[in-house]
């Protein structure tokens, strides 16, 4: 087998191996996490545990993040009429990013009876990566505004992330810094396949030069 063929074969094997690694490592991992909310309400402190699910869908240069509650939290001593309750929440970012993401949703579409757990509709927000890498999404503070009052529910059990997402920032920005100094231009780096192509090009150039020399000598002898 020639050097060029061996190089092409090795490159194909490496590409297949890389594809297998990418397929084995999922870009996103979601997990339902129990969150113990401690709520400060107008009528006193309340607590409730709800499984929280956070999912993502790619949207343009970012991701649409949806936060779901599988059980109700807090309650109201009076009935909350349709449209009387407006929820919002924060999601804590970790890993390659930091800070919080605010998610919001529609008001309650049905009346909430008195002294019953308040079921929160799905809340959504848009996350735009600032750095490339793995970012985690963890349930943060839930805020419920109803009838001119505000209820704040804070996780007390240090819940783990409900979503881990491999993201790529626009322009390929990463959290690391380039190593090495100097202000000169970077030289292109070549691998085995590039070397084979370069050698092939050089060989072709030498061959053409030799053929041209032979032709010149032949014509000169005839002259």
Name the descriptors.
single chain; 223 residues; alpha+beta; 10-stranded antiparallel beta sheet; 24% helix; elongated; disordered C terminus
* Number of helices, counting only DSSP H or I runs of 4 residues or more: 2
The Rg value, from CA coordinates, equals 31 Å
Strand content: 35-45%
Q: Looking at the structure, what is the overall shape?
A: elongated
The low-confidence parts are 16-25, 174-223
Residues in helices, as a percent range: 10-25%
* Average pLDDT reading: 75
Main pleated-sheet profile: 10 strands, antiparallel
What is the element string, with H for helices and E for strands? Answer: HEEEEEEEEEEH
Query: Roughly how many Å apart are the termini?
Result: 44 Å
How many strands appear in the DSSP assignment? 10
**Protein structure class:** alpha+beta
Task: Summarize the structure in short.
The protein is built from 2 helices and 10 strands, in the order H-E-E-E-E-E-E-E-E-E-E-H. Strands 1, 2, 3, 4, 5, 6, 7, 8, 9 and 10 form a 10-stranded antiparallel sheet that branches. Strand 3 and strand 4 form a beta hairpin.
